[in-house]
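Re: that chain you flagged

S.,

Sorry for the slow reply, it's been a week of failed gels. I finally had a moment to sit down with the sequence you sent. For the record, here it is as I used it:
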Amino acid sequence: MTILIGLFFILITLLIFSFMRKLYTKFPHPILVPIFTSSLFIVIILLLAKISYSSYMIGGQWIEHLLGPAVVAFAIPLFDHRETLKRNIVSIFTSVFIGSLIGVCGGIIMSLLTNVDEKLLRSLAPKSVTTPIAMDISEMVGGTPTLAAVYVMIAGISGAMFGPYLMNLFKIKQPISRGIGLGTASHGIGTARALEMGTVEGAISSISMTLSAIFTSILCPILLSLFL
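Prediction finished late last night. Pasting the structure tokens below so you have them in one place:
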């Protein structure tokens, strides 16, 4: 019975995502990015049907297990464009470092200006890196790991939704620049979006995501100690 429930939720998830992807292809508006619309639709279904998250994850966990191989697969475009990476290594390192610095400082400063609770602030600071690392950083600096995971999802989905739109608005056309922006600000979800834009964007975004995690791990405790 458990297996059937799991298969049912996997099928529902895949069908919803497939439908939302076709909808986005027909109407390419930022608000209709599949990662956002499919997640929202699944949450609505679970709430209306009064299905618990733990029940959904009987099947959802198998999709979650694919995250590891998906991240490893980012190495393929990275290898294909290794010469581009070598030629631009200094620019990439510098840009990702500055982006990571702004990401942490931006979250801290906005939280201080809006009088956010300190616990929330410490959870918000590492928002731009992938979930496991953000949760570890948050716990290390006195935040709440589960809240950090929520902020990471918001940063990733909003980056995937509005990142390309903002880049087009400000006429940022260079593939390396676009890849750095998405990988630094929106981690894995942003990198998946970058791959849709092109293999160069995806490759640069994947290395930017990794560097951002390293820089944020170093900068976050230091900056929090300076501001708080």
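What I noticed first: Residues 199-227 form the longest helix (29 residues).

Talk soon,
D.
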